[in-house]
Specification:
This protein is an all-alpha fold. The chain has one domain (2-221). It has seven helices and no strands. The protein has helices at 2-10, 14-55, 61-69, 75-96, 103-124, 128-160, 165-221. Helix 2 (14-55) packs parallel to helix 7 (165-221) and helix 5 runs antiparallel to helix 7 (165-221). The longest helix has 57 residues, at 165-221. The radius of gyration is 28 Å and the shape is rod-shaped.
Amino acid sequence: MNNSLWPLVKQMDVVSTSVLLILFVMSLICWTVTLYNHFVLRARIRELKRAQELLKSVSSWQDFLSKASTLSDTYAGAMLGVYLTEFKTIAVMYTEKNLPIPQERWDLFKEYLRQTIDDVMHQEELFLPVLSTSAVVSPLLGLFGTVWGLVHAFMGIAQQRSADIAAVAPGIAEALITTLGGLIVAIPALIMFNYVQTRQRMFEFQLASLADRFSAIIKTTRN
């Protein structure tokens, strides 16, 4: 099959070749985005789960600080550091006066945690539209290449004044190559989109769980 397709690809005109090149670049980008999300999110989800298991048995504020320090080189430790810095900013006046933190301050802090998670997810989802767009656009690009190729094939028939199958088949086959290329990009891109979206939702859930655990720890040990 490769031996029969390659000569057809080589004899394509500039437009059809450009369509195939665009499809190839789209496929490359899709695989890059998917592999990045797979390996990076897998590591981060693992670290977030480990942090939650470690913090389950926290009995005091000092115990929390001690266990959190063991996570300093991980993604979960970095998130805890961000949460802790904001908590100290909000609670410093009450801690100095040895007063309980009012409920409105807790609500403000929880809103900050939600906003932090939203900001993280916004960054993670920046390239997600690439996958969905590729899944939608690549079949249309393939169809465009097919129509363009068919137009050229029929123009060739008109010039040769012959509709012999031997004369028509190569042009039609050449035209259909772009449709094949579009489907080869679109089908994996759709699968990748659903996979990455599922992994990101799992990542968001783990972030929210860590934030909830941190909020529960400081409320029971610092209030």
